[in-house]
Amino acid sequence: MNITDKDLQKIIGAVLKYGVLTVLTIGIFGGLIYLFGHQQDMVHYSVFKENDQNFFQVVKSIFVGVSHFDGRSIIYLAVLILFCTPFLRLLLSLFSFILEKDKLYIFITCIVLAIIVMSVTLGFSH
After folding, report:
1. Domain range list for the chain
2. First vs last Cα of the chain: how many Å apart?
3. What whole-number distance in Å separates Cα of residue 63 and Cα of residue 41?
4. CA-to-CA dists, residue 12 to 18, 40, 75, 78, 84, angstroms
């Protein structure tokens, strides 16, 4: 199976295009569920509280909430997918650079991926 650079560019474009469409669809769906479930609630602007959960605990709680059709969790899932879309693009770009044997861009992309992975897994809320 020969994958050309043009094929990879089409795949990357499709990932970005369908990633955004997926995020919009999930976000709107979650927003509607949230709005219909919280029509009488008062607006609280102190919603964002500091939380010392790590990334994996947050992802687990998002999926638990999604399984219960919690609107807020569905919106968070859309945000998670929005984050993963450019990350997947970086991985596909790395694959493209490996096929092209472009050592400089392989190195740069690996550094960017390492920074993202470290910031997500080792990030602190303070």
Report:
1. 5-38+53-122
2. 48
3. 24
4. 10, 43, 24, 19, 13
Non-local CB neighbours of 97 within 8 Å, separated by 6+ positions: 105, 106, 109
Neighbours of 4 (CB within 10 A): 10
Supply the DSSP symbol for 31. Answer: H
Q: What does the DSSP assignment read for 64-104?
A: HHHHTT-HHHHHHHHHHHHHHHHHHHHHHHHHHHHHHT-HH
Place of tokens 């029509």: 39
**Cβ proximity of 8 and 99 under 8 Å:** yes
**What 8-state DSSP symbol labels residue 45?**
S
* Alpha carbons 83 and 67: distance in angstroms, whole number: 20
Q: What is the pLDDT of residues 54-94, one digit of tens each?
A: 778 888 999 999 999 999 899 999 999 998 888 899 999 99
